[in-house]
Amino acid sequence: MKSKFIYLLVAILALNSCSKDSKPADVLPTNTCGVTNPAEDIPWLKERLAYYDSTRAETFFMWQTDYQGETIFVLGTCEGSYNPNYSAFDCEGNHVSITDELNDYLNSVTSKYLIWKPKNFKCNV
Asked: Lesser CB count within 10 Å: N end or C end of the chain?
């Protein structure tokens, strides 16, 4: 009985130590344009996402990443293509040109955070 208790205690401690070191992809960085919840706290972004919700945009999604030291918000759609098509915006809502370099980065970046997708999302991103 004592060995089972020790085994259970070790397993719980091991699981707790792993969760502190990992950062899930759906947890935003602490400094995102000076806010903690960009989809709610950045007015232009909140308005844009509300518009997409109202149009039933089933193939749109929005995620954020850092590019060249700046936070960018990426609107993607998977409609009609195997590769997503992107539009990008900075913290103020200004359009960021999708150069070949930025497009390559967006297609390969692993540190991206999904901040919005519709409930009836039809894509696999």
From this structure: N
